[in-house]
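INTERNAL TRANSFER SHEET
From: sequence group
To: structure group
Subject: DUF924 domain-containing protein

Please process the attached sequence and return the structure record in the designated field. Keep the field labels unchanged so the import script can parse them.
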Amino acid sequence: MSSPEAILAFWFQGDRHAFQERWFQRDDAFDDAIRAAFAALVPAAREGRLDVWAETPPGALALLLVLDQFPRNLHRNSAEAFASDAHARAIARRVVLERRLDLALTPTERSFLYLPFEHGEAMADQDLSVALFEGLRDDPVHRAPGGTIDYAWRHRAVIQRFGRFPHRNAVLGRESTPAELAWLAAGGGF
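Return from structure group:
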């Protein structure tokens, strides 16, 4: 089984400050690299078998990457992409709100502790996401147009409007409303 250090070395490629486009763009080679090295960790993390990693800032960061980011890369266009979300938010709450381990990390690293809230479909999670990302405003990477703060606000606007992310409806077996279908047909982007 892989270690938190191996996950962080792979994800950040030695630079824990810079934003990397590959994190948020479809890239089959990147997804395949995650699959080859770390796919077995996702079910273990979802079942809570890696929760001990959350005792340290780097371990918590690695665990949240496994719970929140890796499923999105490994299971695109399927319900399994979101199957770890509830556990990721529970870990993020403990790590960020109770223990404040996020403060020991770089702003870019912190953003991955905050993403589970941005990915939540509850308004309270969206409000928390925006508050946490706004705390990164001093960092130029995050405050730039199209940066993480901007995306936090965009995600919140979708939840405020629809109460859920319409682009997930099909894979989660949810029926889309006419307003959601219109939004999706118009691009439905963030």
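Handover comment: The chain is about 55% helix and 0% strand. The two ends are 35 Å apart (CA to CA).
Transfer complete.
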